[in-house]
Amino acid sequence: MTEMFQFDFMQRALVAAVLVGITAPAVGVYLVQRRQALMGDGIGHVALTGVGLGFLFQTSPVWMAVVVCILGAVVMELVRSRGNQRGDIALAMLFYGGMACGKLLVSVSAASQAGGGNLESYLWGSILTVSPTDLVTIGGLAAVVVAVTFGLRRQLFAICQDEEFARVTGIPVRVLNLLLAVMAAVTVTVAMRVVGLLLVSALMVVPVAAAQQLTRSFAATQTAAVVLGITVAVLGVMGSYQADVPSGPAIVLLAIAAFAVFSAAAAPLARRRHRSAPDAGPAVCDVALPRAGAPEGAATASVPSQGKAPESASAAGTGLAQ
């Protein structure tokens, strides 16, 4: 078991797994909150075009995927915000067009013809593909994602709960919506080396869904999801090395197993909480928001949920107090 840590590629893969385990749930908790759980899957489809362009122009597929994913995420957010009834058709064409274009570009690229363009490693993840340059890129992008998702947690939570109220309080809703979409795009490119583009959405959603089974606040859910994401990512990479299988499926199956365990433990825990506090009443969904024009650290306004907590959280028995 310990000999795997002597290889440079395994050391890079484990570091990348930790970074992916942090960033994917940190962004995914917002997507789950606003019922956009499959957004990461759509961005992953678009990212294939970036990978194909990287192969075609013999440049870094990671950076090309970052650019293409950001453009695709911005388009997706603009379509969503306009509420066009035919927006789902436009998004479907964007997703499947991205996959088709990516495969076509990889097929005609010189790298692919020379045997150097391995699309499978980007689709399903591979611990052998994490180079030192990729690790530096992943680390830099992950730092940006963590800074935004945790540093702006209060504002991002507000727009996920009620965009209209957030707009009234002076929060720049459109800017933050676009920023969240960009962070989701960056997370997809961060995770594609380890988890794979086809499975990255699972690591953004499943740890969050598992954490919701046992937590009662948004902050606790985000923290627990990140801890679980790191755990399954590291164990999945180690297991893929031992079993000689792609890392992506191993990580996702571990995450689903963790969700099953957490779900089994949720019902007894809920009954125990109910017995210990029978008169406590339902959990209140409050979030402290900065008042319009108030300086950082000033007094905040409390926003009662009035029973409008998202089904994804309320179904799990969680309060969403910030």
Quick structural gist:
By secondary structure, the protein is mainly α.
What does this structure look like?
This is Metal ABC transporter permease. It is a multi-pass membrane protein. The protein has 322 residues and is mainly alpha-helical. Helix 1 (8-33) runs antiparallel to helix 12 (218-243), helix 2 (39-56) runs parallel beside helix 4 (87-108) and helix 7 (132-151) runs antiparallel to helix 10 (173-191). It has one domain: ABC transporter involved in vitamin B12 uptake, BtuC, CATH 1.10.3470.10. The model is unreliable at 280-286 and 294-319 (pLDDT under 50). The chain contains 14 helices and two strands.
Helix content: 55-70%
State the low-pLDDT regions, or none. 280-286, 294-319
CATH architecture: Orthogonal Bundle
Annotated CATH topology: ABC transporter involved in vitamin B12 uptake, BtuC
How many DSSP-defined strands?
A: 2
Q: Tally the helices: what do you get?
A: 14
Average pLDDT level: 81
Instruction: Return the CATH class.
Output: Mainly Alpha
Distance between the termini: 41 Å
Strand order of the largest sheet: 1-2
Membrane topology: Multi-pass membrane protein
Family: Belongs to the ABC-3 integral membrane protein family.
Transmembrane segments: 12-31, 62-79, 91-115, 135-153, 165-184, 190-211, 223-243, 249-270
Region (Disordered): 296-322
List descriptors.
single chain; 322 residues; mainly alpha; ABC transporter involved in vitamin B12 uptake, BtuC; two-stranded antiparallel sheet; 70% helix; 2% strand; globular; Metal ABC transporter permease; transport; membrane
